[in-house]
Amino acid sequence: MAKLTVNELNLLGKRVFTRVDYNVPMEESGGAMVINDDTRILATLPTLKLMINSGAKIILTAHLGRPKGERVPSMSLRPVADKLAGLIGQSVDFCDQCIGQAARDAAAKLEDGGLLLLENVRYHAEEELNDADFAGQLAGDADVFTNDAFGAAHRAHASTAGVAGIIAARGGQCAAGLLMERELQFLGDELEAPERPFVVILGGAKVSDKIKVIDHLLEKADTIIIGGAMAYTFKLARGFAVGDSLVEPDKTGIAQAALEKAAERGVKFLLPTDNIISRMNDGTWADPKVNSAEDIPDGSEGVDIGPESVARFCEVIAGAKTILWNGPMGIFEDSRFAKGTFSVAKAVCEATASGAKSIIGGGDSVKALNVAGLGDQVTFMSTGGGASLKFLEGKELPGVAALTDK
Ligand code: AMP
């Protein structure tokens, strides 16, 4: 169901309670917490500028880290308020509470086009419990709710679903921010009716994390390419030896069921036919080499896809019109085992340059593209991790369900 978007609202003079994702990496430096990467703050600027220009009084709420209901000073959002002020070029009020009289007073003082950031909402255990009374206090006197925090939309928390319910019950509108709208467009609409061939590339550590995504996408894709450690559970299900590779032996049944569903539906299901193998020796990887056989010898682990698999996968990617990629092809954090992942990254960008739509489903594939300096050469990179996967399973996210239908 299409959701209302912030640019469809009349916000002049309205108090707008806005959930954003400011869960940014921070580090202590000289006794203060410093933001390492401001990507998530930058990502909210289009929505904030639109609301500022519309004359909204903007109350921002976010979480940072996992303070588990305690006031943990290193997880304060205060540095984020300063950073945001610099990036957006206007002052940002900060309130060291997210509920209570201080928060109400700070919100009441806002002028049209003003910005207020409330303290870490997870300083209160009631946030993750979606406590109704806490949600009511958070909502305060807000007229409108907007949500730009796709990365937090898979959880029904007070600041994602609770406040929306309260504002909707008062007759207020609840809308997606511009970033949220793009996530819903690319991970949702674009994959519902993809231009074909639609090629899905999945990698990473565990089949169990992504089996529901595979199951859902088997109903949409023309080809599914599997790399990373999760390929070994499929190889085991097919009767190959996997040596000491990271594998989930108790998941061969679901892997087999996915292989059968692919065969029934005529979906091509590609597994690596060769690998880079290595041995763990005293905590370091030893003897990396190409293993051209389908079987992996005892004592060795598959740590990346091999050259034959790289060539085969890249050829299929080159012919795609829609590409979805989630998860690395190997242990790409070690440069000796990164070739498979970076070759796939390059192939995805080349296909994009030739007219394919490429959608990167969050997590480590985003990291790999950024490390390779290719982040701007794909159509869309999701900002979500767990939320992207849940959405790709075809599930409605509670934070999205709570928004007003169009
Ligand atoms: P995920 O979060 O499920 O996408 O998994 C990402 C992690 O999977 C990365 O940290 C990779 O190092 C790891 N990974 C990918 N391939 C392998 C492999 N063949 N063996 C062990 N770990 C792997």
Could you tell me the radius of gyration in angstroms? 23 Å
Number of helices: 14
Report the structural category: alpha/beta
Please outline the major beta sheet: 6 strands, parallel
Q: What is the CA-CA span between the terminal residues?
A: 8 Å
Unreliable segments of 5+ consecutive residues: none
Overall 3D shape: elongated
Mean pLDDT: 96
Portion of residues within helices: 25-40%
Annotate the secondary structure layout.
Elements: E1 15-19, E2 26-29, E3 32-35, H1 39-53, E4 57-61, H2 78-88, E5 93-95, H3 100-108, E6 115-118, H4 132-139, E7 144-147, H5 158-169, E8 174-176, H6 178-192, E9 198-202, H7 207-217, E10 223-226, H8 230-237, H9 252-265, E11 268-270, E12 275-281, E13 284-291, E14 301-305, H10 307-318, E15 322-326, H11 339-353, E16 357-360, H12 364-371, E17 380-381, H13 386-392, H14 398-401
Parallel strand pairs: 1-4, 1-7, 4-6, 5-6, 7-8, 9-10, 9-15, 10-11, 15-16, 16-17
Antiparallel strand pairs: 2-3, 12-13, 12-14
The structure holds adenosine monophosphate.
Adenosine monophosphate is lined by residues 204-206, 209, 228-229, 246, 302-303, 327-328, 330-331, 333, 363-364.
